[in-house]
Amino acid sequence: MKSKGIGTVRPQYFTFAQPPHEMKLECGKYLGPITLAYETYGELNAEKSNAILVAHAFSGDAHAAGYHEGDKNPGWWDSLIGPGKALDTQKYFVLCVNAIGGCKGSTGPSSTNPKTGKPYALDFPILTVEDIVKTQKYLIDHLGIKKLLCVIGGSMGGMQVLQWVATYPESLRCAIPIATALKHSPQQIAFDEVGRQAVMADPAWNEGNYYGKNIPEKGLAVARMIGHITYMSDKSMEEKFSRRLKDKSPDFKFGADFEVEGYLRYRGDNFVKRFDANSYLYLTKAMDHFDLSGDRLFSKGGQSDLRFLVIAFKSDWLYPSYQSQEIVRKLKTHHADATYCEINSTYGHDAFLLEVDEETRLVKHFLQKTYSDFQKR
């Protein structure tokens, strides 16, 4: 059933950093022009004080809610965005931006390099989460929004939330990082590296120069299969698949005998159809370089006025709850107004996309209080 009130939406585009005013990246290189694909839901009020920025996870995009023309499925967080939902579009102006380095409308390695007329491929500069957030700030400024009511996101989206706090604390009122961390652990980096090696081991990858040719679909599919294992929990996999066979008896070959094998292959094959292999490399590397530990989260000061709702999930072993607790301890050390909620879910890391009722209750109440208190000032 289509979400009531959102209906059909269309992506919008904003281009900036035109030469000779390219944007300087954290690696020291310059990038421009830069195009951002984004979508908006709800209306921006006259004071421009009701804007909420939704930051997407690694494989997400700007299409967070509603339907594109002809689509059967809504945006990836449609369950939380819309009239009466957690991000109530009758009250708030919600926007979601496709991260640079991706492949869903924003400038990335598959985009045309204006200097060569060909896709950037590996000539695209290495990005950081700070670079991604910096481009979002350009868009927010372009829209005339001086202060966001909230930045919210899970996983890589949660990293962007924390980066907003670190880089632009004066430009937001509250932050909701979900299922994320101040930095990647060695284990998290290791999983990303195995995925990258799977992509680069595919002969079709061709040092990143596969555009217009055969794509490295086998390597990218394997990388996605690895990812999906980490997104679920042992219990959710047991409940969903157990050791069930696809047929009544195994064929004693190397096919997909078990349901879980078929699921992983299906997920891998579908991912190849919608995601660029080089974007996989660039975005996972950006996450691995992310590090707001120590005093980096508060390097610019000013965060003591912000409100925080930090959400974790008990069965999430990719971004375990201790990493969210580290965020809260850091916030409390600096006397920030921080609330921590750990949801007892069996879905693993995917819970931030699936635990709709509990997230709605927490986020809705938190936003209402923050917005109400701001209006009373």
Q: Can you characterise this structure?
A:
The protein has about 375 residues and is of the alpha/beta class. It folds into two domains: about 10-185 and about 290-375, 3-Layer(aba) Sandwich (Rossmann fold), CATH 3.40.50; about 190-285, Rna Polymerase Sigma Factor, Chain: A, CATH 1.10.1740.110. Helix content is about 35%, strand content about 15%. The strands form three sheets. It has an eight-stranded mixed β-sheet, sandwiched between helices. The protein has a two-stranded antiparallel ribbon with strand order 2-3. Strands 7-8 form a two-stranded antiparallel sheet. Helix 3 runs antiparallel to helix 4 and helix 3 packs antiparallel against helix 7 (about 275-290). The radius of gyration is 21 Å and the shape is globular. The two termini are about 40 Å apart. The mean pLDDT is about 95.
